[in-house]
Design a protein that fits this description.
Elements (H helix, E strand, L loop, with lengths): L3 E5 L6 H9 L17 E7 L2 E7 L11 H15 L2 E7 L6 H11 L5 E6 L3 H10 L9 E2 L8 H19 L9 E7 L5 H9 L17 E7 L2 E7 L11 H17 L2 E7 L6 H12 L3 E7 L7 H15 L7 E4 L11 H12 L5 H14 L4 E2 L2 E2 L2 E8 L4 E6 L7 H14 L8 E6 L9
Parallel strand pairs: 1-3, 1-4, 4-5, 5-6, 7-9, 7-10, 10-11, 11-12, 16-17
Antiparallel strand pairs: 2-3, 8-9, 13-14, 15-16
Length: 447
């Protein structure tokens, strides 16, 4: 997948709709509001037998220097510099606008070859606009309808030669392991995108004092000490009553999807507002999804009494997140880079625990020992017997426990077993599931 294709154009011409069509799923947020896309988003695209990386970008627009719009344009410029070919999308229904002409001239002076795409060309209204696009001087436009899938065969024909060139230049690609799925989440304006940029070593994502800059969950491929990582920056999660408008609801849904597909989740919190209720709500959400959690305590450099703040953090974790006892946290300042080097080792250690498997003989020796130390309660005058235990799954560690009357096992004893599993098998900060089953040892009598 050597070919990289950037989708560019003025706002609201259907770039994100085309991106979703090429990747085969609705990854990018789509709305009639101009300027929905802010950061550049990458995905694995397919057209017939053609496989390539596609990059969705913010709409090309004029903006004042230093503004959010200008920073969005800088991201688009970087995407173009990284691409092998650019798809310049115009709206065939609107016809060619002065802004289209201006940016066609900008693209013509760039290094990447440009393919002109006339979107929304279905029906009579789009035909004349597609012909009008010839006036841009970028060759014959490819007439498509990204929403309905029309014109994809013609787009394939145009892109195929670029794919051959990119493959020839790339040579044989080395086989790589499946990347670690790492999501960065948190409340708005706690420094998530700043942290991602610091980890990547480049201004990959838009940042600034404005809350809610990130709207999409933006995935970036990264290599950390030889380990492939898919790093996902997400929109800030506010309390549900404060979520307003269709776009924010779409952003929240995108973030929740990123959590579900992640392996490790880094919850970024503001050290000056240590573990607020919404932070804990997000942490509970991650635990319920069964994801591994690491907490990044950002803006630590702004804390004056660090000893008191650290005690407050530890007490809050102990009392409010007992189901993730031992969760790793890293004190850092994403803006300056202080402490950020400790984050990925904590992520990898947590990921290893999340994937840990304990052999059945060890588990049953352990089960006998913990029952001897703290016997299960009496049920109708008889001692409840825990007969057998085996690990049913990993990611997160999940155990099947066979008992005489499983429904009678109190939650307090289940919590005792979880805590002992966490301590004795080194499973700090990861969700642990125990599934109760009725019956004898299912493997008794087998050879």
């Amino acid at each position: 997948m050597a070919l990289k294709v950037a989708i560019v154009g003025r706002p609201n011409v259907g770039k994100s709709t085309l991106f979703n069509r090429l990747v085969g799923q609705k990854l990018a947020l789509v709305d009639d509001t101009p300027g929905v896309t802010r950061d550049r988003r990458e995905g694995e695209a397919a057209l017939g037998d053609l496989r390539f990386r596609v990059i969705d970008t913010a709409g090309l627009d004029e903006a004042d220097e230093g503004s959010l719009g200008a920073r969005m344009q800088e991201q688009t410029t970087r995407a173009l510099a990284d691409a092998d070919v650019a798809l310049f999308v115009v709206d065939a229904r609107d016809g060619i606008t002065p802004l289209d002409r201006h940016f066609a001239e900008v693209l013509r002076r760039g290094a990447a070859p440009v393919v002109l795409v006339a979107n929304k060309a279905e029906g009579r209204g789009g035909g004349s606009g597609a012909y009008e696009a010839f006036a841009l001087g970028l060759g014959e436009p490819v007439a498509i309808s990204a929403e309905h899938g029309d014109g994809m065969a013609e787009l394939y024909t145009v892109l195929a030669p670029y794919a051959d060139q990119a493959a020839a230049g790339a040579g044989e690609a080395a086989a790589t392991e499946r990347p670690l799925q790492l999501a960065i989440i948190g409340r708005p304006n706690v420094g998530k995108s700043t942290l991602v940029n610091r980890l990547l070593g480049e201004e990959r994502l838009l940042t600034g004092p404005e809350a809610g800059i990130t709207r999409d969950a933006i995935a970036t491929r990264w290599n950390w000490h030889g380990r492939a990582v898919r790093l996902i920056d997400t929109a800030g999660l506010r309390r549900r009553p404060k979520v307003e408008g269709k776009l924010e609801k779409l952003s929240v849904a995108d973030t929740l999807r990123a959590i579900r597909f992640a392996e490790v989740v880094v919850l970024v919190i503001d050290a000056t507002q240590m573990l607020e209720k919404q932070d804990l709500t997000i942490a509970h959400m991650v635990e319920e999804e069964g994801r591994a959690l690491v907490i990044a305590v950002n803006k630590w450099d702004l804390v004056e009494d660090k000893s008191a703040a650290l005690r407050r953090l530890q007490d809050r974790l102990e009392t409010s997140l007992p189901q993730l006892h031992g969760v790793r946290f890293v004190l850092l300042a994403a803006l300056t880079g202080a402490g950020t080097a400790k984050l990925m080792p904590a992520v990898m250690s947590t990921h290893e625990a999340w994937n840990r498997r304990v052999s059945t003989p060890r588990l049953n020796r352990w089960l006998a020992a913990v029952q001897q130390r703290h016997p299960p309660p009496l049920v109708k005058g008889r001692r409840l017997k825990l007969r057998y235990m085996t690990q049913a799954n990993i990611r997160p560690p999940t155990f099947a426990l066979f008992a005489t009357t499983p429904a009678a096992l109190p939650d307090s004893y289940r919590r005792y077993l979880v805590n002992q599993l966490r301590e004795d098998f080194d499973l700090p900060g990861v969700p642990i599931r125990i599934m109760l089953r009725k019956g004898e040892n299912p493997y008794a009598g087998r050879e």
